[in-house]
Structure formats: structure tokens, C-alpha cells
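Minutes, project check-in
Item: structure for the 303-residue chain
Input as provided by the requester:
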Amino acid sequence: MPARGKHRRRKTGPISRGVLAAGTGGAVLALPLIGATGAHAAEQSAPAAKSAAAHSTPAATAKKAPRTYSVVAGDYLAKIAVKEKIKGGWHKLYKDNREVVGENPSLIRPGMKLALGAKASAPAAKSTEATPSTAKAAPAAERQAPAEKAAAAPAEETAAMGTSESNASGYTAPVENPNVTTQYRASGASWSSGYHTGSDFQAASGTSVRSIGPGTVVSAGWSGSYGNEVVIQHSDGMYSQYAHLSSLEVSAGQTVTGGQQIGLSGSTGNSTGPHLHFEVRTGPSYGSDVDPIAYLRSHGVAI
């Protein structure tokens, strides 16, 4: 007979207690608590992963959507490129929107939709709404429409200028419907040199003043008796000057095209009233003037 107090109960580990349970009906298998918890967590994580994947696709698509800009009065490509921080400047902006703008990058109209940082793709976007039978034909037809409008627009606006703009040179008069009120070399005590160093054009305050041809802005700002002025160097080495402006829309170092708006006429500086004082020079400074009307005519501009 075993001695009292000597019997020891067999120790069971936590794993044995979790796996095997004694009962009158026999042994039954019990799931470990840790295993059950892990399975439940996995089931909960699966829907969350699917949800995250489902929401990630629209976000990625939204980032790739191109930006657009609606042209307003007073806009020009260089101004838009600086404002919207376009890499490549106005040249890139024009290249991406050439089908919309047309052959002359200086002729943009309020209401135009320009793609920013990507090639314009408005016609292709519209075609996605077409029926299956017309989806392929629609883009070609819609691409043709902007091209026709772009080709027609410059011709209409050139006709409204009242000048004969040379397609080869790209030169034009500094204002629409040019009317010279004071001729070049007119004599009088009003001018420090004893004669008029440029030609004055009739222009009410706020009239659009345009670069006569392609070139680079040398200076733009206040210039004493000339008031607000812009001086542009052209590809042939000559310079043009636009004085007494009420506002400026270009800055030094900026490239401009023939017909591009550079400011608005006014009566700043030593002026008796609103008009545009226009000079053509062999150098950027006062005292190197030549006949401005003769220069314009040599570039095919009828005045």
C-alpha cells in the first residue's frame, strides 16, 4: 500500500491542457487560443487590404489628370507659362497647344482651353462619350475642327489690324489701325534734341501696344521723360522703343513674337496726352534713331 503523501500528481504543460480534455465520452480536440485569434485577425485583414487596393487606383489616376487653363483678356503665352510655372516656358506651352492656338503663338483669344505641362488631348477625351459605332471616327473629326479654327483666326485678326503683315518676316504695326499724328524728324522746341526722334501714333489710354516683330526685351520700366517704356532688340540687330505706356506686360530678357501685346498705351512721363511714342534705333539708347515708318515698310507693313 503506497504511503500517504507520497503520490504526486503528474504535471501537464499548457499545451497539453489546451489540446486534450478528458471527459466521459472520450477525448475531444480543442483549438489553441492563440491559433484561433490569429485566424480571426487574418480574416479581418483581408477585407481591409481589398479596400485599400480599391481606393488606391482612383488616387493614382487623379494625379495623372492633365491641368488646363482658360485664357482671359490680357493673357499671352509667356505670361501664362510664368504664372503656371511651365517647365520649358512659353515654347513648351505653345508646342503642346499648337492645334488649339494655330500658327501664330501671339494670337490667343479669351476662352481658349490650354493644356498645362502636357499635349492637348481634348478631342480624344470627348470621344470616350461616343457610342461604340462612332468612337473611332469621332477623334479624327474633332481634331480637324480646332485646326480649322486656328488657321482661320489669325487671318481674321490680321484683317482687323488694318495692316499688311508679312508672313515671311512676322512684322506688324505697333497698334491697330495706325494713324501717325507726329512725324519723325518734326522740328520744335518741345524736344531736347530739337526734333522728334520717333513717330507718334494716335492711341487712347489702354490701347493694346504690340511688338512690331520677333525679338528679345532689352528693358521694360520707367525711363524719365519717356515714362513707362519697352525696348526690344530684333533679329536683324535693330531696336524698337514704345514709350508713355500706362502698363507693362513684359520684362527684360523675355522673348516676344511679332504682334504680341507688350503693354497698354497711356500718357506717363513728359507727355501732353495719351498716345504711343514709337522709335526704331540702331542701338538700345536714345540718340541712335532712324525713320521708324520706313523701317516698318521695309518689312512689308503698310502704313
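Outcome recorded: Helices lie at 14-19, 33-64, 77-83, 89-96, 98-101, 122-127, 137-161, 292-298.
No further action items on this chain.
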